[in-house]
Fold this sequence. Notes:
Strand content: 5-15%
Number of helices: 5
Radius of gyration: 16 Å
Number of strands: 6
Mean pLDDT: 74
Structural class: alpha+beta
Distance between the termini: 35 Å
Shape: globular
Order of helices and strands: HHHEEEEHHEE
Amino acid sequence: MLDEATPLGADIASYFKKISDGHLSGHQGLGLNLLSQHEALKFSRALRGHPFVETAESLVLDDAETSNHHLLITKGALAGSIFFLDHDGDSRVVFESLQSFLATAYDAVSRQVWIEELHPPVTPICQTPRELDVLVTSLLNSDLEDLMPVECKRVSKKFWRGEAVKLGDALTPSWHFIKNG
């Protein structure tokens, strides 16, 4: 789990430096309140018991007091991408990088638009499907069926088939696990 002693990569350190002016904080009316490095680590520790936060060693990036959060995934197949943890269950990976998340946050503030309205409609494609399988299996073992990173059908005990693979938006997750057999 991430803590104050965890060395941050150059991308993460650069991200926290860019937001240190506070320009992207305090915009609860836009669903946007980016946290400082200290606040992000503290909030991440508070969510330590959440299976997705632990499995993907996620860093909570914002708290707009909506019970929804953008998380930086730091481990596994989706490392470096931004996961939107939605308390209503429509959680998914929304940005492929901190840079794309940050650009969208600036856009939300400049246009005065709710940041969730600017989420890309298609989830970035995972480039490492074997690692994604490890994450899916880990989440299944935690019995956290509503946070699956791809919509799946259980074909056999050890084989998963992504249902969301379609031309143009492969691996677009709906975050609902469908049991079959």
